Each structure stands twice: as structure tokens, then as C-alpha cells.
């Protein structure tokens, strides 16, 4: 496509102003230049972006779709500009890391602060998402590294095991499940649950396993944190499936019992993955080595 950043900004300004004249003024372009640029975009794309009327313009369906894409492109460019400007201030490198829920909340926090303190010229961005989506994004070169559960199909990515990360069941003391030391997911799938907020990677993972059993988890309430979940469970609000590392951190605060989850997929480990470890910049390789210290 031959249109440029100026064209995209002009397009959005016309949309905001409701007229080509208003968009041209916001873009500091002449009306003739703005009109030619929009006609050029429409010719290149093969669709009309605006419906012209006597009082201004409105978006066509194609134009409405372009609004989303144009905003995304311009936001990415601003992010790129901001990141690259940091190099002029002595930044040595930036690491884009994707992590599942456990990696984000349990493994990384006590590592990242110390790393950034030791490496003042390295910046780091961490984005939480489900393990399967992380693998897809790494393969599509959308990030440098990913931290995922080892039960995830890695589709040829290089990987190294970081740590054990089993899932465990937390039940209130009044629950009949306290008589058990180990249960399977199918044993408890029809119970009432306290879960994490929708969209959190771990909860999406559990929902998929329930779906594979032909059912859906019955949530009495969803909480934003494992700490909040354990508080509700301890008061009789239901059962919860949570990472063992998180549970052990908070168990002293709440009354309840931790029960082993026997399913193979629950005996998970966290792994760090990349397209090819040998092709990573030195500073990214050094970051990986730091995670194993």
C-alpha cells in the first residue's frame, strides 16, 4: 500500500472533524491536498472510506474498519518512537516478555526489580496472556521471550524449564472435600467455584479444561487476585484452583485446606521460550541466564 502516516492521520482527523475541510485544517494541509490524499487512499484500497454529503462526511463500513487499524498503527509508531528515543539516553536494549498468570504474578516480581537495578540501561515490558497465545505471538515475532506452562504445545520454539508450577485446590474447612488429600478435576468440576476475573490467563485455561469435559465451571464470584480468592473460599464461598506457589504465600492468612490436583495438566512447570535462543541479542541471553540464578 502506498499511503503513509500523514494519510492515516489525515483520515482520522477527517473522521473526528466530520468533514474533509475540518480534517485538512487539523492536519495542516490544504483542502486540495487533503482531498487528493483521501482519493488516493480509496483508489489504492479499492473502497470508499467516506460517504460525502452536503454537510460533511460519514464513515462507510470500510472506513469504520480502517479507524481501528489506523489507530493501532499510529499507536505502535508512537511506542516505537518513544522506545527508540531512549537509546539516545544510553539505553542498551529493550526486552519484550510475554507471561502467563503464574509467570506474571509469582515468578517474575521478585526477579525483575533486582535485574533492573543491576542493569540500568535495559528496559523491560511484560504482558500477561494465555500460554497458547504467547506461543503464537512468539512464532509471529511479536515478542522476544515467553513464559508459559509446559503443557502448552510449543510448536518448535526453543525452551528451558524455569520452575515447578503445579495447580492445587483450596477448600474451606467445612467442605466435605477436606477428607481428601488428592482429587481430579472431573471429581470437583460440578462444584461451586471462586475464580479469577474473566480474561486472566489461568482462568481461561481452567475454563477450557471444563469445556473438554462437556461442562462449564459454576462461579459464585470472581476475584482479581489469588489473595482475594482464598479469603472468599476460607469463608465458605466455594472451591478454588490456584497456583501452589501463590497458595503457599497466603495460606497462613486464611483457614482452609490445600488438596493436590491429580490431573497431568495440573502438574505443570513454567518454561521460558523463544524462536531461537542462539539468535537472541546478548542482552536478552543475559536476562535469561539471570532468571536461572
TrEMBL record:
Gene3D superfamilies: 3.40.190.290, Winged helix-like DNA-binding domain superfamily/Winged helix DNA-binding domain. Coiled coil: none annotated. Keywords: DNA-binding, Transcription, Transcription regulation. One of its GO terms (cellular component) is cytosol. Residues 3-60 form the HTH lysR-type domain. One of its GO terms (molecular function) is DNA-binding transcription factor activity. It comes from the Bacteria. It holds the Pfam family HTH_1. The keyword Chaperone does not apply. Belongs to the LysR transcriptional regulatory family. This is LysR family transcriptional regulator. The lineage of its organism: Bacteria, Pseudomonadati, Pseudomonadota, Gammaproteobacteria, Enterobacterales.
Amino acid at each position: 500500500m502506498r499511503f503513509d502516516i500523514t494519510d492515516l492521520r489525515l483520515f482520522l482527523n477527517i473522521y473526528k472533524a466530520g468533514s474533509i475541510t475540518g480534517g485538512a485544517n487539523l492536519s495542516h494541509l490544504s483542502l486540495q491536498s487533503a482531498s487528493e490524499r483521501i482519493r488516493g487512499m480509496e483508489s489504492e484500497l479499492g473502497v470508499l472510506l467516506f460517504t460525502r454529503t452536503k454537510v460533511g462526511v460519514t464513515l462507510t463500513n470500510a472506513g469504520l474498519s480502517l479507524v481501528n487499524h489506523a489507530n493501532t498503527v499510529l499507536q505502535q509508531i508512537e511506542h516505537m518512537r518513544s522506545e527508540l528515543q531512549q537509546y539516545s539516553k544510553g539505553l542498551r536494549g529493550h526486552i519484550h516478555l510475554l507471561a502467563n498468570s503464574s509467570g506474571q504474578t509469582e515468578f517474575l516480581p521478585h526477579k525483575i526489580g533486582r535485574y533492573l537495578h543491576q542493569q540500568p540501561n535495559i528496559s523491560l515490558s511484560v504482558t500477561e496472556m494465555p500460554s497458547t497465545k504467547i506461543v503464537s505471538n512468539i512464532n509471529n515475532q511479536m515478542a522476544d521471550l515467553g513464559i508459559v506452562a509446559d503443557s502448552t504445545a510449543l510448536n518448535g520454539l526453543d525452551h528451558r524449564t524455569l520452575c515447578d508450577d503445579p495447580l492445587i485446590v483450596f477448600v474451606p474447612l467445612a467442605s466435605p472435600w477436606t477428607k481428601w488429600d488428592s482429587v481430579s478435576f472431573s471429581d470437583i468440576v460440578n462444584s461451586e467455584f471462586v475464580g479469577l476475573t474473566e480474561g486472566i490467563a489461568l482462568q481461561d485455561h481452567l475454563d477450557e479444561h471444563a469445556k473438554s469435559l462437556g461442562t462449564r465451571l459454576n462461579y459464585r464470584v470472581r476475584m482479581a487476585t489469588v489473595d482475594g480468592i482464598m479469603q472468599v473460599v476460607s469463608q465458605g464461598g466455594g472451591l478454588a484452583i490456584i497456583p501452589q506457589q501463590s497458595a503457599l504465600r497466603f495460606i497462613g492468612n486464611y483457614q482452609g485446606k490445600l488438596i493436590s490436583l491429580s490431573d497431568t495438566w495440573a502438574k505443570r512447570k513454567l518454561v521460558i521460550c523463544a524462536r531461537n535462543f542462539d539468535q537472541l541479542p546478548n542482552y536478552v541471553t543475559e536476562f535469561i541466564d539471570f532468571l536461572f540464578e
